[in-house]
Structure to design on (175 residues):
């Protein structure tokens, strides 16, 4: 992915940036953070932000440090939403992923782990093992819907609302 060719703005109020070219060996992409249509969700100084290519990133809001990034394996158009200690995000395959929020997340950098391997085959196995560790540590549930999700899940009146391309779902207890 081509990065803009500009010189740094010394008058900027930027505290940190996250993204740019990925230079580590065996990375799945040639960039750290790609295009996004989404807004970030910030809870307890932890940022959750998806990118269009299908990755959800978990970052430190104070420093920009990446704790982990998880591959949803499908395009993400929606933003993430936080409710009841969980982070929700839908993808184009029609899945809603539910992650456990942690105010003090572990650092599980799958790309860093893979980059320390001696060959591509070992790196791929190490990357997958790290993704599995993220899944086991943070993924609470994966809800399979009937169609593509391009909007952000919403909570109202104690219920979870999910809009797919063809249906609106209200999930919660009957009242």
């Amino acid at each position: 992915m081509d990065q803009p060719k500009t010189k740094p703005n010394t008058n900027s109020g930027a505290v940190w940036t996250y993204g740019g070219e990925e230079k580590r060996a065996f990375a799945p992409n040639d960039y750290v953070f790609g295009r996004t249509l989404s807004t970030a969700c910030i809870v307890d100084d932890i940022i959750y932000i998806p990118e269009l290519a299908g990755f959800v990133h978990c970052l430190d809001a104070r420093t920009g440090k990446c704790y982990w990034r998880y591959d949803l394996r499908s395009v993400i158009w929606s933003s993430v939403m936080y409710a009841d200690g969980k982070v929700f995000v839908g993808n184009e395959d029609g899945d809603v992923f539910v992650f456990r929020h942690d105010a003090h997340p572990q650092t599980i950098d799958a790309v860093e782990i893979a980059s320390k391997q001696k060959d591509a085959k070992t790196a791929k196995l190490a990357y997958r093992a790290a993704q599995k560790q993220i899944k086991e540590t943070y993924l609470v549930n994966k809800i399979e819907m009937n169609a593509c999700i391009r909007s952000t899940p919403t909570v109202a009146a104690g219920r979870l609302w999910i809009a797919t391309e063809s249906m609106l779902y209200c999930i919660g207890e009957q009242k």
About this structure: The domain at 41-146 is CATH 2.40.10.480 (Thrombin, subunit H).
